[in-house]
């Protein structure tokens, strides 16, 4: 099969494709790290933070599907394999072993702030080449910023 | 916080913990690869295989949570970070770019067969040290073997 | 297409396949007989027994699918055709025509007891060759024994 | 208990009862054969046909209950036992073992066509003696003809 | 407002309107009597018969709405007032006070048989003038005959 | 069977039983009249009033069951037969034939006001003999007064 | 693919196919006109009529699918393209621009009356050739006549 | 009634209104053509494509309502009558009669590509005059492009 | 933590607290005994009584939570521990072993009558000190009296 | 329109109307303050208190509707405008800006205690004039006291 | 706790924060006024307008939460207290007492038009500083304009 | 009625019956103690622990029914009366009065650890005599160990 015929020009496709692939790596790694914390958590606020982290997982998994399917819809192949995520992720990793609830809340706040920074750059970058993709990224950013506030409010 | 107090002896814990960590890596990578194929798929059977792969994702994600929470419940820290998965996975990886539906069906059949082989070893290994863990692994294996049959039947 | 590649050895496959095929015939005939009684029932307890029999039908139909799909998942072809069921069933058949509620309760109690006996033999037989199949048979047996108690309690 | 008192004359009862008993055998055997194909299916369209066959099973099981309960409601004992179905069915049986998807689609198309032919005769036969039964048979025939079209469209 | 403009001729309207008004009185009184028995019931089978009677109420209330709305849809005013029902009902009334379960089952069986007799006459009467109404009456009759069988089976 | 043993004294029973029987007649006739208007309604507000009347029917039918079951629970036989309702109802009856929406709204407002007056007397009467019954009557009155306001607001 | 093999004779097929194709055009155009009025409506009863029109849309769309799938099930190709509907519709069209609620109610009443007239002819025409199709048309006619009454009652 | 008072200037209204009316015609004709293919489809992938087309119908019908109600909300009368759609549609029409599944997939891919092109022009056109309308069009375009990818992936 | 600050005077608190603690013991023991009978039941009416007893369990468990939370809401510590219930319950206990259905119905009728007697005393006692508590007790009593009637009606 | 005709005397109406209007102001302001805290909350228990406050909002909004509709049902106009609430509220207001979770829990405990005090006065005041209103106020008080306990238990 | 760290610059924060706070006051007052009208409404269209107003309440309450949580997510404290709303609202207030349905429809149409005007200014103002907030405001404006059309269409 | 006929030998029955009766006492007392803590809890984590305890109640109540019905299904009478539980429970009891959240978490962790110890002994004991019962105990143990981890993680 030939490549999916894109509604975008090549230049627009390059910028938009990069934004989406970057978003995909961010969101997959966010989902893996939120699960890692969900499992290895300890502390007095265990139950609340344990469940709160699954909201982040749900958001990150939903976002993954949206950005990856948007990528292929415009003719770019998303790459969400473990090796790709491990090599390209810009997120500060969690340590192995038990994770104290306060530290998890602080770490997730930081991780979300970093990801939000990159998403805001992607929103700016896609404004010209593809408003449909930009609209999708705005929607995910709104949700990331809401979770960022909620985690930060607990610190 | 001290480690979670385990109901198992140290020897039993070692065997069971290894089985669960191995299962975790298998299931996380299975979910990532099934999504990779879900997104990059092409071919006449696109719609059916696209949706069928999401059944595998659901199964793999549900299994991840079960094995990881079982691990921590017996006092072993599960590790599901991207780097860990990328380095330790024994699953044959998919190539980047478009994936033909027939090849995806064949590849998923093979991947499931490999994982099933390792799960059957884990069932045998946990029979003595922890029947509760074994029962969990048996349940996941039954589902993996059902999916294996369904993918193989299409080849 | 070649046969489904089984995760079991040939010897294990033979024992497990026989257990599953036997279970399939038992469960199909159980569903047909429970429906036969559901329709031709009479007596003061008609409404209760009429509805109770449909619980047995639901259990038997769910079990059919599970054992047949397990069979094919390990590479054995299940056979649930009318002729096969009629020729191989070991269940004592009901007579044609109206069936008195007391007699139905007694007959179903007996039929369930016979089937339970055969399922317990199948549990023992599959312990070595395939614990995944054994776990499935244990689950169905638990439900059959629960219904057996409920019918027997009415006699 | 005496027989259920029928709202029909004896002559009407005979014709109507025969139509319903015939429909019952057709529908039970249809459900058994559709399940047989559901389990032993292979081929590139496995997933779609596998699920499509369960729509036929649902239709056939719902129809069984309706015709059998209609029979007893007018004072005729329905007979849906395995031996009765095996001996009286007019449906061409499937072979044992794996069944190729194309052949299954063709076979189900034929089986439905045969059953529809008999249902149309039953509709004609019951027009005079019992319009209530006729209305039930018309409803089932509409569903059978819809499935027949869907299977035939795939050939 | 002028009368609703009917799609039927005057002659057809007369026959159809009478059939529907008669059915309305039957169904309202059936719902009142089933409730009367539902409340005043006693006996070993209290719980089952108490709930079974509410199935009759549901059937009778659903049928009332259907026949009354059909009447007005063809331009005939349905009359379901208490006085009309009390004066025109042909159903044998229940006595005041406690009602034994066996007697209730017998009485409801008889009442349903009488109503079914009248509905079958209405089906015959509307065959020519309005098949749409006839189809509605056939559907209600099928449900009445199913309940009649179920009550009779308990006697 | 002997009469249901009442938790009330004979005097309390008499007052409470009368209140409940009166409420039953009011509520059954309310449901019949609301349906009569529901069916024979005409006018520009047909759709809204047609559906609004069914809210009254639902309220009246729910109330019937509650008061009748309360009556028998304290040892009094409720009587909800057509003849009893027709003879004892104190509600002003609707005329046969088409009913103009404005007139229906006015009539239902009046009917509800009358019934509310009688329910308030029953609340006062049961205060001493049975607070459980009183609480039930208060609950129904609250709903009747809410509907009364809604109908009156439209006039 | 060869044409779908029909259970009807050629003559029966012609009559039945024409009835179904005519019904399809009526129902598609009804759905388009009801939406046109739904959007351009004004007047004091806007909210009620706006929502009432969507009930007609739902009925018309459900009916379209039923008649078109019935057509193809008996071997006749339904034609529901815009050009076909525009050229063959017998329904009096609505004007462009705002539509007053009273006029919409009157227009829909007329439109439904016309369609009902044609459906009654189709019921008569299919009585002999195909009772299964006739039963479908009777069911749709009942719903159309119910909506006709409801709209007419508001005029 | 006077025209709905618009929050937009006349110039902005003209551009926005044209974009919405154009979108309406595209979406109505898309829904009609998708249904035409849904009904007349044949081929080995019948079941999958048959159901996939209904996803397009759902998308197109939801979009119709959104754009038409947006039009009237800003004071422009949408026109969705059969004649308007037939005369103004720019979509390449399907032929009458049976439609092969491969050709349908190719045709729908093309039709979606054309519609997407026009929607992208409408997004550009409404950027200045009305961002609320633009946001609505962006949302629908995202869904159209997702379906376009899915159909193209099957070719 | 200091005790919950109560909205009641000390005297009112004492009376209300005693009423609630007494109700708690009654309801916990009722739930345990109903379950005991649910499990050890035998007899022809097994199925109906078995399920009926679970309605009592549901009622008793719901009531426990309401009275215990009401107690703590007014500043009184509820005590629902096994030893407390065993020592303070005034309910006649069931014997160990199989329980005949007729005897169970009679015993539950008696147990409910006793509990109702005590609840009526608590309603009287709380009338002055706390109408909010009284209202809660009235609600539970209504449900207990409804179940009492239903069990008594079967004797 | 004339005022809604009240079922109460003028004196009773005055007392009851005042009680309801007072309750309305309390409940609207409670909902506004709970939302204010829901949004501006910070602290380690952010997530739990954030969600707990929404339970209070739900309770307060449900209560508003009930008391306002009760007021108009008895002929008194409820006033829930912002100015009225701001001027008449007796609740201690929260400060602007971030609110620490511990302080919020303490403040909500106090606010609920004050409101409960006023509701208990309203229960006493309406005992004579209108038991239907009193019953409504008792129900809301029970819920307020339950929430009061839950907040106080956290302090 | 320090203030929530904002992803925006101070200048952008000021503009965006003002837009969100203004929107919050508009939406809270809209919900209070819509409820005021919902309760005090009279007139022939009472039922429809009564329910329509609750759609506005739902929209306004949902919007409140979204804008307030967006404000705090970017580091601005929303203020939704009664005094703030009463002092800052720019909405023309409703009078106390009964409100005629026609006047309510006209008043709500005007109120919505005013609020829409202010929301369109906020959309313009936030275009540069924060597209995420702008997207949220666009979404709410679309809903407000839809309700505005619906109310205006009734005038 | 004679005792339920058991599928087990007498020796197997004795061991299995003892295991099930012991499990029943553990689970009933666990449910009572979890409710005791649920009601009398205080402390900053009140809301979370209050709700977490109800998960334990749900688990314990579900387990009770399963083990008791398993007991009677194999012919052993379960005994779950208050006296039996109070006398035979091996669980360390909670004190009366308010319970601090930290102490509750610690106590529940200990209680679960004790129960888990006994369940593991029961799993070992039933391995030979009845694998069906063993499978049930394994399932409950898995859930108990999951809850144990979650409570321990909070300490």
From TrEMBL, chains A, B, C, D, E, F, G, H, I, J, K, L:
InterPro entries: DPS_DNA-bd, DPS_DNA-bd_CS, Ferritin-like, Ferritin-like_SF, Ferritin_DPS_dom
Ranges for domain Ferritin/DPS: 18-154
A UniProt-annotated Pfam family: Ferritin
Molecular-function GO term, any one: oxidoreductase activity, acting on metal ions
PANTHER family reported in the protein's UniProt record: DNA PROTECTION DURING STARVATION PROTEIN 1 (PTHR42932:SF2), GENERAL STRESS PROTEIN 20U (PTHR42932)
Family named by the database record: Belongs to the Dps family.
Protein name, entry field: DNA starvation/stationary phase protection protein
Taxonomic source organism: Actinomadura darangshiensis
